[in-house]
Write a structure and sequence with these properties.
2 copies of one chain form a homodimer. The first copy, chain A, has a single domain, classed as 2-Layer Sandwich (Mth169, Chain: A), CATH 3.30.1280. Chain A is 35% helix and 37% strand. Chain A contains 2 helices and 3 strands, in the order E-H-E-H-E. At the A-B interface, strand 1, helix 1, strand 2 and helix 2 of A face strand 1, helix 1, strand 2 and helix 2 of B.
Chain lengths: 79, 79
Amino acid sequence: MKFAVIITLKKDVLDPQGKVVEHTLQSMGINSLKNLRQGKYIEIDLNETDEKKAHNIIEDMCKKLLVNLIIEEYKIKKI
Amino acid sequence: MKFAVIITLKKDVLDPQGKVVEHTLQSMGINSLKNLRQGKYIEIDLNETDEKKAHNIIEDMCKKLLVNLIIEEYKIKKI
């Protein structure tokens, strides 16, 4: 069973890396760019047939290792 | 208009960073983990009301800066 986890910085947390990319694109002439933020995307393949169990395992991974809950938030999607 | 761009390594490209995370999770006792790959997630806000035009601008950004087309592939989604 495959899941995607999208990890983004919380709304009020500064994203300097995203800002650099944003400014670079603007200096390349893309004027309609209003805002850009960078996050992480993780694709996880599990040996687990029960969707609810699998979801809980992913949730566990996020809380224990993948996500810094102080500054980041995450979304889990089945793919 | 807001878009999400998901950038992943092509299937045949090694993902050493993902492997490290995978092994760490396995050593933490998560045995059902079969495979894990890391990618990038970019949220882009555009000053553009025409969806097709906006999509083309994002496509342009991907090809010119965001994506290394030799080893990466990307998906664009309106959010």
